[in-house]
Amino acid sequence: MKKIPLCLSLLGLSLCLNACSEPSKDITLPSGFSLSVYSDNVPGARQMALGSKGTVFVGSKKTGRFYALIDANADYNVDQRIIIKNDLNLPTGVAFNKGDLYISGPDKILRYKNIEENINHLPQPSLVTNKLPEDSHHGMRTLEFGPDGFLYTQIGMPCNICQLQNPIIGSILRINPENGNLSIYAQGIRNSAGMAWRPGTTDLWFTDNGRDWLGDDLPADEINFAPTEGLHFGFPFVHSQNTPEEDYFDKRLGEQTFTPPAVLLQAHTAPLGLSFYSGRQFPTDYQGSLFVAQHGSWNRSTKVGYRILNLRLQKNTIISKTVFAQGWLNGAFSNGRPVDILTLKDGSILISDDKAGKIYRITYKQ
To answer: How far is CA 150 from CA 73, 153, 218, 237, 331, in A?
Structure first.
C-alpha cells in the first residue's frame, strides 16, 4: 500500500479544518450578512470565550473535554483545534479573565492559569470551588465575569417544577475567583443558560427557560433584567407575567413579590446564550443590541425556536424583537441547535451549535 507523505497528510488536515464543511444553505440572514463555518469539528459545542491572543475556547457536552480553537494567521479560519482533557462531567461553561481560563462542570469550577502561554503544555488546573450541586439535570453551567471582577454562574433546578430547601438551587451565584467564596445574587430562576452585562453598566441580563407540560404555549420563556442583587424572579411560585402556579403560589413567604420578566419569548423556544453586540462591523442599529440564541423545543407538538433573535433596547426597555438568523429547523427536522454568541475583535460574531458540533461565523458587508 502506497504511503502518503506526512507533510501532505498534515496539509490535508489543515485544509479540512478550514474547508471540509460548507455552511448550511438553509440558514437565512438579513441583507448584507453572510455565514461561514469557523470550525466544523467541535462536538457538543456550548459556551464560548475569547482569549486575549484570539484563541476561542469552547465548552462541551462531552465528558472530560473542551476545546481551544486557534487562528494562527488571523484569517478567521481555524488552523488548529486542541482538545483539553479534565475530570469534569459536562464541562460546558468557560470564561476568560486576565489571562486565565475558568471552566465549569455541574459541581466544580477549575482555573487554568496563563492558558494561552501554555496551551501546548498545560499544567494541572487549580480548584476555584467544589461547592456546587452535583445534579446534571439543568446542570450545564454558564460562566461570566461581571464588571465587579467576580465570577458568576447559574444553578438550575434539578426538576421540571419543585421547591427545594437549598437556597443556592434556582439562583445566580457570585463567586470570588481567588478564594471560591460565593453568595447569592438572584433567586427564583428555573434554568438560566445565558448571562450578559450591558456594556458600560452594572446591569445584568439573563435568559430563563420556562417549565414543561403546560401545553404548547405556556409558560413563556424569559429574558430578565437584574440591575441590583437580591431580586427574586418568581420560580416556582409564578410564571410568565407573574401568573400564579396552582400548586406553589400559596407556599410563597407571606406577601412575597416577584420581579417580572423584561420580555417574554414564545414558550419552549429555549433561550440559552445571549450577548450584547460590542463590535462595529454590523450596521449602527445593531450596535449595543442584544443577540439571543434559541436552542429549540422538545416538549411541544410542533417544534419552535432553533434560531437567533435580535432585540433592540431603549434605556432598560426592549423596544423591538426580530428574527436575525433562522433555518436550523426545517419542519419537524432540525439540522442544528444554536447555543451561544460571541463577538470577535473584527466585529463579526460566532455562534456555537451543540447538535451539529460546529461554530459558525457571521459577517457583514454593505
So the answer is: 33, 10, 35, 29, 43
Contact (CB, 8 A) for 221 and 270: yes
Rounded CA separation 162/179 (Å): 32
| Domain assignment of residue 192, yes or no | yes
- Expressed as residue numbers, the domain containing 301 is 6-364
How far apart CA 75 and CA 346 sit, in angstroms, is 11
Q: What is the total count of domains within the chain?
A: 1
Contacts of 182 (CB under 8 A, 6+ apart): 129, 131, 168, 173, 174, 175, 176
pLDDT in tens, 232-275: 999 999 999 999 998 899 888 888 889 999 999 999 999 999 99
Residue 1 lies in a domain: no
Summarize pLDDT for 84-103 with one digit per residue, the tens: 999 999 999 999 999 999 99
Q: Which residues contact 268 (CB under 8 A, 6 or more apart)?
A: 210, 212, 216, 221, 297, 298, 299, 300, 304, 305
The mean of the pLDDT values for the chain is 92
pTM of the model: 0.92
Cα–Cα distance for residue pair 157/189, rounded to 1 Å: 8
Q: Is 318 exposed, middle or buried (0-12, 13-18, 19+ CB in 10 A)?
A: middle
Q: Around Cβ 61, how many Cβ atoms within 10 Å?
A: 18
How far apart CA 259 and CA 244 sit, in angstroms, is: 13
Taking the C-alpha atoms of residue 178 and residue 101, their distance in angstroms, rounded to an integer, is: 13
Supply the CATH number for residue 330's domain.
Answer: 2.120.10.30
Task: Please report whether residue 152 resides in a domain.
Answer: yes
